């Protein structure tokens, strides 16, 4: 069975953490059900205070006058800074959002001059949040490795020097929500993405059976998207999720996406463990992560059209 997507919502006080034991993840029905219903509720363990402080600091930054925010212009070479960096989708004349990109890891690659100094607590707050997200990521990759029939640390190691980028996106209110998207359709150039969002505004939508389905926020939860890297590694068993963000008239929205990706020199290809009797050959071409990323970042946001280049 091709597992379409793992779009996991990670919440407090819900079901037991799916990564807690191999058995939970290993139970076929559990995994299949979670995947088919497109949601897995897990306790991520990030203190609510840490998420709250992250959201407050980000809100302070986005409230600053434009000329203040522009002191940290987005630099496409290091993928950090403030701006509206994506090329627009075919049907869009404007993406109704702006974003602050910060490198969480490797720490030594951070370009700190692109980290806002207002509000002053932003840097420490991002550090605290990113340390927690990194823990969730490690656990999640551990579980995914197990259900893919590998050692717990296999996916973590496949990333080699793992990269984590935070994209905080602010979507202002919009008086023509039918005509303007906050962010065009795309799949993430990550292995997985861990996304926190505002608790009281729905904006994210995922493509399911040809229609856009809203992902209603669960307070303090994280949404986990499967990205293109995992699609290739899993030989298409886990498909990256096509998603977009709509605008609303009523309320501005902010989201916090942590993208996990391999080192730029990692050559991605379907993992041996994912080749079975039915799929004896890899369904994706080999590609260096750096080359894939260059290709994707220069394209318009057109859902998963870019994946055609890598699919056999
Ligand atoms: O705002 C969201 O909920 C999604 C953001 C997103 O898809 C992205 O940053 O790649
Ligand atoms: Fe995304």
Automatic annotation (TrEMBL):
Q: Pfam families, alphabetically?
A: 2OG-FeII_Oxy, DIOX_N
Q: What SUPFAM superfamilies does UniProt report for this protein, alphabetically? A: Clavaminate synthase-like
Residues in coiled coil: none
Q: Boundaries of each Fe2OG dioxygenase domain copy?
A: 160-262
Membrane-traversing stretches: none
Q: Record's InterPro entries?
A: DIOX_N, IPNS-like_FE2OG_OXY, IPNS-like_sf, Oxoglu/Fe-dep_dioxygenase_dom, Plant_2OG-oxidoreductases
Supply the alphabetized keyword list. Answer: Iron, Metal-binding, Oxidoreductase
Gene Ontology molecular function, alphabetical = metal ion binding; oxidoreductase activity, acting on paired donors, with incorporation or reduction of molecular oxygen
Which PROSITE patterns does the record cross-reference, listed alphabetically? FE2OG_OXY
* Entry-linked PANTHER family: OXOGLUTARATE/IRON-DEPENDENT DIOXYGENASE
Family note: Belongs to the iron/ascorbate-dependent oxidoreductase family.
Protein name as catalogued: Fe2OG dioxygenase domain-containing protein
What is the species of this protein? Escallonia rubra
């Amino acid at each position: 069975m091709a597992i379409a997507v793992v779009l996991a919502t990670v919440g407090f006080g819900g079901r037991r953490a799916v990564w807690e034991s191999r058995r939970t993840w290993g139970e076929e029905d559990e995994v299949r059900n979670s995947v088919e219903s497109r949601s897995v509720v897990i306790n991520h363990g990030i203190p609510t205070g840490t998420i709250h402080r992250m959201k407050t600091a980000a809100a302070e930054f986005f409230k600053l006058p434009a000329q203040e925010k522009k002191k940290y212009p987005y630099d496409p070479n290091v993928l950090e800074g403030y701006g509206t960096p994506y090329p627009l989708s075919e049907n869009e004349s404007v993406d109704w959002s702006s974003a602050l990109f910060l490198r969480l890891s490797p720490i030594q690659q951070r370009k700190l001059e692109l980290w806002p100094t207002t509000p002053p607590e932003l840097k420490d707050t991002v550090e605290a949040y990113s340390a927690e997200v990194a823990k969730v990521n490690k656990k999640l990759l551990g579980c995914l490795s197990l259900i893919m029939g590998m050692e717990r640390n296999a996916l973590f190691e496949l990333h080699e020097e793992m990269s984590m980028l935070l994209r905080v996106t602010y979507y202002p209110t919009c008086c023509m929500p039918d005509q303007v998207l906050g962010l065009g359709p795309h799949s993430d150039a990550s292995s997985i993405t861990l996304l926190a969002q505002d608790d009281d505004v729905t904006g994210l939508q995922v493509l399911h059976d040809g229609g856009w389905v809203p992902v209603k926020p669960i307070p303090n939860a994280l949404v986990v998207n499967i990205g293109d890297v995992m699609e290739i590694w899993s030989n298409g068993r886990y498909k990256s999720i096509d998603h977009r963000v709509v605008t609303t008239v009523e309320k501005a929205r902010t989201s916090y996406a942590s993208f996990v990706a391999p080192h730029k020199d990692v050559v991605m290809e379907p993992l041996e463990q994912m080749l079975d009797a039915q799929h004896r050959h890899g369904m994706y071409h080999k590609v260096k992560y750096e080359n894939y990323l260059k290709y994707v970042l220069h394209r318009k946001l057109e859902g998963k059209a870019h994946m055609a280049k890598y699919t056999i």
